Amino acid sequence: MLYRLIIQNYAIIDNLEIDFAGNLNVITGETGAGKSILLGALSLILGERADPGVLFDKSRKCVIEGMFKVKKQQIQAFFEEHELDMEDQLILRREISAAGKSRAFINDTPVNLSQLSALTQLLVDLHQQFDTLELEKSDFQREVIDALAGHPDQLSAYTRRFYDYAAQQKELKDLLQQRDQANKESDYNKFLLDELLETDLKDGEIESLEAEQQLLSHSEEIKGTLDRVYFQLKEEEQPVLQQLRQLQASLQSLSAFHKEVPALAERMQSSYLELQDIAAEVERLNDGVQYDAERMEEVNDRLAQIYKLQKKHGVQQTLELLQIRDRLQADLDSALNLDDRITTLEKKIAALEAALQQEAAKITQQRQAQVKPFEEKVNGLLAQVGMPNARIKVDIRQAPLQAYGQDAIEFLFDANKSNQFGPIRKVASGGELSRLMLCIKSLVARSVALPTLIFDEIDTGISGEAAKQVGIIMKELARGHQVICITHQPQLAGKADAHYFVYKQMEGEKVNTHVRLLTQEERITAIARMLGGEKPTAAAIENAREMVAQ
């Protein structure tokens, strides 16, 4: 519950602190005194967008702080999900600078507005899940019936299975698109693959062929040079090897006369042997170099074939062509496997759908079981709050499988016993919506743990006995929940456990809003003024006293 609200520098509020009771809190005051401003400030700690134009004093920041008492299990999952530290009390704070910058905090830890809003939906019902705008929405109408049906675990299990089913359907859709695309491309891809397979490329082949082409193209030049080198080494009139042999012998003859000559002679002998080996290798290479016109033609044709493939596929190396070949083969193989995967997935989806339909049928039965008692109770409450001719009817129609079953649920409304029921969003007025929401909320509150409930003039347009009955419903609702209600009705104010009075007064050159908790006698006087004007009669005071005593 919200036990303290602190407002600083907001609209026409300079500094305000309110301690709320745990049951029925009523806020009254003259029109324009600032009652709705309190809710505007409260909405900031519920995650609403901030407007820097609401600052009371433009030179300092605005601070709104709400202190809550909560059951830890109520918010534990949220704190664990967002890795926040839980404390014995929960403090929410919004700060708005004069420049318009807004910051939000949960227990002094900075958070974003979406996090703040998600948490406060667990704490406060203000313009959120159960407001009159939501009443017109089909999701809310379904949630009301589900709350009364009391099957959250079953519904959660169904919803998880449905999302699995939806994921499988998406996968099937993707596979079907892949198959369609593969079918469009398969003929061309098969042509490309056959072309590469027919070419029968080997890794590094183009590099090897280009080297062979160079050799064949320059074979005459190579052979002429090798012939000349071999001839000069071994076969001319005074071959190099013969001269080197003679020079080595000359050095050897001097070995006895100089100690360093033998080493030189040995090195020359090594050079002779190395050149002799070179001559033999040159002769071998020369014998192996032959110009082959037929082979040259074969190499040129093969290279032309590969160059054509390279240009077609935009690559430079044989390995890249081989990778393209493998990818095309894999794509075609995958396309052949798609039919098997699609068939398997279709069977799985059919089984999931059958199971979902069985579960959805049970959920539908549970919902339908709540329709008649819900209609009877709401219609009874409508008569109690001054709408004796109004009727609500719940229309449940079969719909395609969805996340919450296979039902389309709509609340229909007839305000005048005309038996002409229409969708609430089309036929109910604002005042009717407000009272209808109160009736529905009072029923739902008995089935689920609603958070703090806040009503902003929900009793607009009623008086007398109807207003009294609204007060009775509010009082009953407050037995298990904290209720905060802004009202102009004395009948409702008389039911309050805590009565707050909002008023304005001039302070310097500014109007400032204040709130004070009324004593018993002050309550009687305030309610008497609501009954009889600024100067209530003795009868009005006595009437007010009776309202407070009831």
UniProtKB/TrEMBL annotation:
<keyword id="KW-0227">DNA damage</keyword>
<dbReference type="GO" id="GO:0006281">
    <property type="term" value="P:DNA repair"/>
</dbReference>
<dbReference type="GO" id="GO:0009432">
    <property type="term" value="P:SOS response"/>
</dbReference>
<keyword id="KW-0234">DNA repair</keyword>
<comment type="similarity">
    <text>Belongs to the RecN family.</text>
</comment>
<feature type="coiled-coil region">
    <location>
        <begin position="116"/>
        <end position="185"/>
    </location>
</feature>
<dbReference type="InterPro" id="IPR004604">
    <property type="entry name" value="DNA_recomb/repair_RecN"/>
</dbReference>
<protein>
    <recommendedName>
        <fullName>DNA repair protein RecN</fullName>
    </recommendedName>
</protein>
<feature type="domain" description="RecF/RecN/SMC N-terminal">
    <location>
        <begin position="2"/>
        <end position="508"/>
    </location>
</feature>
<dbReference type="GO" id="GO:0006310">
    <property type="term" value="P:DNA recombination"/>
</dbReference>
<keyword id="KW-0547">Nucleotide-binding</keyword>
<keyword id="KW-0067">ATP-binding</keyword>
<feature type="coiled-coil region">
    <location>
        <begin position="335"/>
        <end position="369"/>
    </location>
</feature>
<dbReference type="InterPro" id="IPR003395">
    <property type="entry name" value="RecF/RecN/SMC_N"/>
</dbReference>
<dbReference type="Pfam" id="PF02463">
    <property type="entry name" value="SMC_N"/>
</dbReference>
<keyword id="KW-0175">Coiled coil</keyword>
<dbReference type="GO" id="GO:0005524">
    <property type="term" value="F:ATP binding"/>
</dbReference>
<dbReference type="GO" id="GO:0043590">
    <property type="term" value="C:bacterial nucleoid"/>
</dbReference>
<comment type="function">
    <text>May be involved in recombinational repair of damaged DNA.</text>
</comment>
<dbReference type="InterPro" id="IPR027417">
    <property type="entry name" value="P-loop_NTPase"/>
</dbReference>
